[in-house]
Amino acid sequence: MSKPKHHHPLPPDEQIVSEILAPMERITWRFWVFVSVLLVVLAIGIGAFFYMARTGMGVTGLNRPHMWGLYIASFVFWIGLSHSGTLISAILRLTKAEWRRPVVRAAEAMTLFSILVAGLFPIIHLGRAWLFYWLIPYPNERWLWPNFRSALMWDFMAITTYLTGSTMYFFLPLIPDLAIVRDRATGWKKKIYTVLSFGWRGTAQQWERLERALSIMAVTILPVAVSVHTIVSWDFAMAIAPPMWHTTIYGPYFVAGAIYSGLALVITVMAVLRWIYKLETYLRPEHFDKMGKILLTVALVWTYFWWADFLTGWYGRLPHDRLAWSEYLFGKFWPLSWTMLLTNAVLPILLLSFRRFRQSIPAMVVLSLLINVGMYFERLLIVIPPLSLKHFPYVWGHYWPSWVEVAIILGSFAFFTLLYAVFSKLIPIVSIWEVREERIYQTQKRVGKETYEAVALPTVGQEGGHG
Amino acid sequence: MEARKEETVPENPSNGMPPTSAEDVPRPEGGLPEGAAELPRWGMVVDLDRCTGCQACVLACHAENNLPIAGEEGCEQDRAFNWIRVERYWEGEFPETRARFLPVLCQQCTHAPCEPVCPVYATYHNPEGLNAQVYNRCVGTRYCANNCPYDVRFFNWFDPHWPEPMPMMLNPDVTVRSRGVMEKCTFCIQRINSAKEQAAFEGRPLGTDAVVPACAQACPPDVLVFGDLRDPQSKISRLVSDERRFQLLGEMGTEPVVIYLSQAGDGR
Predict the structure, then answer these.
(1) DSSP code string of B1-24
(2) Which residues of A touch B78 (CB under 8 A)?
(3) pLDDT tens-digit readout, A201-249
(4) Cα–Cα distance for residue pair B221/B158, rounded to 1 Å
(5) Which of residues 337-366 of A touch B (CB under 8 A)?
(6) With an 8 Å Cβ cutoff, is A316 touching chain B?
(7) Are A266 and A420 in contact (CB under 8 A)?
(8) To 5 degrees, how large is the angle CA A378–CA A379–CA A385?
(9) Start-to-end Cα distance in chain A
(10) Interface pTM, i.e. ipTM
């Protein structure tokens, strides 16, 4: 029998606004130290990139069978992380899941920042990074056009579309909150937030338009998100030469993996924000419980897809596929693959089945971090073993990343964290208007012996409760 | 059922087997430009029965095509740089061992998997069926090399460097490639072009077997035979109908124009 639920009536409007805006209004010395450390790590990464661009890709560990390595694995990883925002926010918005309200902003911001980071990797990876714009179909005097038959070209289009779409999707629900900030700000800050809030006054007409725009964007961004990671998988699945890659399940498998790692990171970030910015009132164990249930579902889907991919490749006994799978599971890659299976299949499915586990925030943080370690390994396993074992034994080889690659990857993590930290000081990291809306709808219901918080949705008119 | 079967004309008349005559030679993807029937279709025969593994072809290719030198360190890092390589495989237990040599160069595939994956068209098919690489257009995604089943594409990890006095003997007819660019065997396109120019200058057609790439020229036992598969008089046209013929990874359907002749007694 689980403990009776705590009651969490939300505080009055004024308190919601001041509590959520508190992190924006005071910047501690700890924040500056943290940001400085991130800047140093980022600077090392940028330095490593320029060193690599000037000297040549030879400073990486890449070689002839391994033309792709850590950069491409990291690219897939970051694109994967960007899928959480879309899932949490768009699906939950469309299904009117009320508990989403305090979570969406953090998830949408994560989407935006992780695409920004992900988009850098294909460029970092290029042999001649300074010519990356040749992939853009721009009019030029030589009438040169990119090759639309190339999966990399589809990728380029998909990422730019997703970046544009999720920027809009991030910004639209931010407008009412920016107006709240504007109303409280003074001086130059007021000017900036005045521009950013697009003359928001909170009229019924503005609310109606915002709701309509949000519904349209939520419906639009979902297929875009699915297509983006499917196309990322096609960078591999469209290639015939390496074993394991040429498979039809890669599209859905990648989408499931993306949602999986993204959800795990949302849970990590929720816990961090709750702890640092003292948002216990808004991000409650019940939210972690709900997120845990979705995570469990996705864990099952991911495991099923992995199994379907593995069994088909293994059972078919095509010599190269069979060999690559042997190496993947029992050869030199076994530490990666067995860790991945433990952290992404066995542990999540076992642990997330228990409500007590899902409601324990420290436990959820540890598991969510483990899942992302496993997902990084998964991406390494997708990129490296098939390239190690191409058709001619004469060119089989080994790959071990160099310090340059590691420095750039660490720099990318620092860049993401930096973007997040800085933006948490510039925008309300929990959506104020959506939480206020929740408070207005909030009632309590008794079911049997327990009292639940429930939401009474207005039946007539949508704009009733907006502030 | 039988009748219907006969109605279907397979896209590739050789049906997965190497071409046996000039008519069988697959055309490059996307068809040929106007008047292209006159153009040669370059190919190569590699007679494994004759190969001694001497690597003269490798050396000749390095000298002709200004290949960068990977060096001992580069080779250790799996970055050996040879447009043509001689793979050596051992068979049997000592003392009954036998070495097998397999020279591998760009197979100039008719359906080249490296071509569609390049986002900037740096690799494409020329009208003579050669799989060409435009160095200036290459941005270095390295997708083509990943998708090459034969691993015959080479990436410039660094700017090329030759110890003195080797830069003095670089071939002036061949570009030196910079860092970040992919490259591969061209069938010595500079020799093909200069033979064509010479023929045009003298106002005569390009003769039979008028072009010899560096590797074939250097090969002492005549393993490598280069020529026009469409020219019934050429040496390669006669060799290509040999019953020992096979294509490397022929089952992948890439339709290479490099045709191998297996070692005698291999039961083929």
Answers:
(1) -HHHHHHPPPSSTTTTSPP-SGGG
(2) 63-66, 395, 397-398
(3) 888 888 899 989 988 988 888 899 999 999 999 999 999 999 999 999 9
(4) 35
(5) none
(6) no
(7) no
(8) 85
(9) 40
(10) 0.86
